[in-house]
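Supplementary Note 3. Input sequence used for the single-chain structure prediction.
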Amino acid sequence: MILNLYFARRFAVAFLFVIGAFSVLILLLDFIEHLRRFRGKEVAFGKIVQLVVLNVPATLYQMLPLVMVLCSIMLFLSLARSSELIVARAAGRSALRALTGPLLTSLTIGILAVVVVNPIVASTQKQYETLASSFFSSQVSTVSISANGLWLRQGNDKAQIVIHAERANLDGTQLYDVALYEFDLSGKATRRVAAQTATLREGHWNLLNVKEWPLQSGGNPEADADQMRQYQVPTELTKEHIHDSFGTPASIPIWQLPAFIARLEQAGFSARRHRVWFQMELALPLFLASVVMIGAVFTMQKGRQNRTGLRVLMTVIFGFGLYFLRNFAQILGENGQLPEIWAAWIPPVAAISLSLAFLLHTEDG
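The predicted structure, written as discrete structure tokens, is reproduced below.
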């Protein structure tokens, strides 16, 4: 038990050292990248710093597998050089038992990342996306899903328009049971439009079976209402913009994802990408443990052996290979070519199984 705690503490110290070094490096590189990105735009220096700070948590969260690879390399190479693994084996401690502390530590880090860090990253990423997009367009266009249906907001320097629809097709280009509200820049409603359907065309919404109520003060909206078979409303929205306005799944806290997925499907949209991301997050602790297992396979060697650089290189290559395999499985899951659970859980389970078989063969006979 004491030896397991010792190895776990060594792994935790290595993790803190690596994550601290990466934080400093990412801050510097991200700051330079944002300076280049907003060159020529009237963006205050403080806003750039704010963008960098908001973007760092998401970047570190994505780099957790790489951090785990480096932590496992640091730990097992240091234990091999100091002959502590030899002493542990001489005391009757097998290689797999020596892995207990680092594996439990990596699982704990993964669970904390999903439970605690994920909501923080989701909040900062959403703020980052909103703030960054405000510097590139003067048009105000947002899309949101609620229990009451789909809400869209678009605007320019003359008016703001809010569109509500009970449901939509899978790509959001056709809305059903539509209500449109137009406001002037002072926030006063100027008209209301109801339509059976609204189809997104290039540069406008095409409304069918329309009834329009003018809302100017002093009039009778119902008496002045006008019915039309077809009506067009100018818009800057595109199909891609509607999808992007939902934000990436990473911008939604994991505890809110099931409810968001239900609302998204109720509104008529496909939530496959979000379901895959949800399973990926649940599998993250196991994936981080599988990365540590890969590090142990190549660096947890008996005695002082040569070719340390080659072993480190093989660890990095196989770690990145597992990371890209996971991303490839995620793409297959999002495209519907793999079930969501398979896409999320097969890569870490396969990596742990192969690493375990190799360790049993080479280390424990």
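The chain has a mean pLDDT of 83. The chain has two domains: 2-135+256-362, 140-235.
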